[in-house]
TrEMBL record:
<dbReference type="Pfam" id="PF01613">
    <property type="entry name" value="Flavin_Reduct"/>
</dbReference>
<feature type="domain" description="Flavin reductase like">
    <location>
        <begin position="20"/>
        <end position="172"/>
    </location>
</feature>
<dbReference type="InterPro" id="IPR012349">
    <property type="entry name" value="Split_barrel_FMN-bd"/>
</dbReference>
<dbReference type="GO" id="GO:0010181">
    <property type="term" value="F:FMN binding"/>
</dbReference>
<protein>
    <recommendedName>
        <fullName>Flavin reductase like domain-containing protein</fullName>
    </recommendedName>
</protein>
<dbReference type="InterPro" id="IPR002563">
    <property type="entry name" value="Flavin_Rdtase-like_dom"/>
</dbReference>
<dbReference type="GO" id="GO:0016646">
    <property type="term" value="F:oxidoreductase activity, acting on the CH-NH group of donors, NAD or NADP as acceptor"/>
</dbReference>
Amino acid sequence: MFYRPAEGHGLPHSPFHAIVSPRPIGWISTRDGAGRDNLAPYSFFNAVAAEPPQVMFASNGFKPDGNPKDSLRAIRETGVFCVNIVGWDQREAMNASSAHWPAGTDEFEAVGLSKVRCETIDCPRVAGAPAALECRLTRILRLAGEANWLVLGAVTGVHLRDDCLVEGRFDVTRYSPVARLGYRDYAVIRDIFAMDRPR
């Protein structure tokens, strides 16, 4: 099968999300200019540089009321956000936080999550998350499409859960990262393997 995206695929659901997978989930926490906290998962998320560390996530679409998503609005107002990493134990809360809540809803409270203060930015993070990246906004880029935005941030602080550190390495098998696939599908990482780079 071949299709041109501009002409449609003719399938019941778009295969694009399933093709570009698995995708890490950036569980983005923010605090807006009025002091209201927000938490929402984004699967168009990744690290983009290591020295200095930088991340990106993309905000796609509008809220049902036609307004920009709360995360994007808050980051524009304050210039900071936190990326919380989702492990197997957080999967249900992460999914629940993706609901279309009314503007101003604190998803931490709505889904029963505890929050803790970040160290380098004025923003909460998810208590008990395997890792969290405190970020300062570096740039927001408008992407093609009606409501697609790319958010870039510099990492200013890193939290690692102590039980995930094994002999000086951050061991993902200690928390089993959850990744997004296509449709309603997710994956969990439990098995890893190493390969040496060729010389």
